[in-house]
Design brief:
six-stranded antiparallel sheet; single chain; 28% strand
Length: 169
């Protein structure tokens, strides 16, 4: 099996897992945006781990899963893990689902009512992935290296440090 085949298989497993969650435990929940569906966006391998954005009718998360040569069996369920990307460092929470195994997620949006369509959610997810892999201004200016919040990533405030707004925390 090629690396690309492995990746496509894992993406399919991830989507199927969350489709089952939507069909069962999330069925009829009031926080579901009926205009949205489960979709894995721009997943790829980065430094051995699988990374991408998962869209669901109730959340959008940046997701990390172990790559083909990684084993995260020793991670602490609900433990917090920091991961560094070109744009900064982000905190992820560890989880496990029988259908996909171990994963780490970083919440981007929840609930999802601000998205009027699947296309709007997908466009946002793609923009997140571009921003995630883009060096921040702070990386280009080593003397100013603030920790970037996920809300700043989404709002495109990856440049010079700004005082956090009340809604950022």
């Amino acid at each position: 099996m090629t690396e690309q085949d492995w990746l496509q298989n894992k993406v399919q497993q991830l989507e199927n897992c969350y489709r089952e969650v939507l069909r069962t435990s999330m069925a009829g929940m009031p926080l579901i945006n009926p205009k949205l569906k489960i979709e894995a966006v721009d997943f790829g391998l980065l430094e051995g781990s699988m990374v991408g954005v998962l869209i669901s009718p109730w959340f959008m998360n940046l997701m990390l899963l172990p790559g083909p040569d990684q084993d995260w069996a020793e991670q602490t369920e609900l433990g917090k893990y920091k991961h560094s990307f070109a744009s900064g460092q982000y905190q992820f929470i560890a989880g496990h689902k029988a259908n996909i195994g171990h994963y780490r997620s970083c919440s981007l949006f929840s609930p999802m009512f601000d998205f009027a369509s699947q296309r709007a959610a997908r466009d946002c997810a793609k923009a997140v992935m571009v921003a995630l892999h883009s060096p921040s201004q702070a990386e280009m200016e080593p003397e100013a290296k603030p920790e970037i919040s996920r809300r700043s990533l989404l709002r495109g405030r990856l440049g010079k440090p700004q005082a956090p707004a009340a809604s950022d925390e």
